[in-house]
Amino acid sequence: MKETAYAKLNLALHVRKRRDDGYHELETLFAFCEHGDVLSASPAERDEVRTIGEFATNVGDPGDNLVARALTALPHPDGLSITLEKNLPVAAGLGGGSADAGAVFRLVERLHGLPDDWQERALTLGADVPACVRSHMAVGRGVGEDLASLENDLAGMPVLLVNPRVPLSTGPVFKAWDGQDRGPLPQGTAREIALQGRNDLEAPAISICPPIAGVLAVLRETSPMLARMSGSGATCFALYDSTELRDAAERSIARSHPGWWRMATALR
Asked: Are 30 and 9 in contact (CB under 8 A)?
């Protein structure tokens, strides 16, 4: 069996306040791309995980990464051997590890179903994991785990992901946030929320990783509907009104910045 771990985007991300437990209250518009990492599963005597792909060496211990931890979190009577094809950069604002864990949940669901408390089990692995299990557009609140479905009027929209190949950990970016509440997520359709929203972590991320500003500047020169950083960075995305515009942007960036990572995809 194969399952795609769909790349997660925060089309808007509003940070409202720091909580006493060290987490932050968020309001975000989750969206997912058609492409991402790929997990392959086959029966085995015991659970095992191996990684391949461009970013395989960045995942960490195969026995203790989020794929392995997701397997441990779910009841399944037989062992599973999972191969993770790591196509997404790590520490990149794309929810890569959370998406991988979400794909494990879907694999186990296809084989055995999920327990009634699967959402609580997913949350123990990370705030984004419950959203990544379903990988459908949703508004997230709390630390991102309080999900409300939203009609997806952006499905199929071409998107280009660009990362300057600089890993950026989430903790320091949140720590660098200035603590100012700039207001709630807008109301309206997904398109309206995305266009009228913002990412409150862009400025602190750029203060730590200046190349993000360069990626955004280049993307905004390619006639996108919207260009913004995803999550805590350093990946940025641009939404386009046509695949021709997206593909032209990718070709241009490939020529001007060949060292940057790119993925041409669409919203699902």
From this structure: yes
In the numeric block, which tokens belong to residue 8? 């997660």
Span 2-149: which CATH code? 3.30.230.10
Q: How confident is the model at residue 125 (pLDDT cuts 50, 70, 90)?
A: very high
Sequence-distant (≥ 6) Cβ neighbours of residue 254 within 8 angstroms: 262
Q: Are 240 and 158 contacting, i.e. CB atoms less than 8 angstroms apart?
A: yes
Second CATH level (architecture) for the domain 158-266: 2-Layer Sandwich (3.30)
% the chain with pLDDT above 90:
92
Catalytic residue among 37, 86, 100, 128: 128
Establish whether 200 is a catalytic residue.
Answer: no
Given the residues 8, 86, 100, 200, the one annotated as active site = 8
Catalytic residue check, 17: no
For residue 213, is pLDDT > 90?
yes
The residue extents of the domains of the chain are: 2-149, 158-266
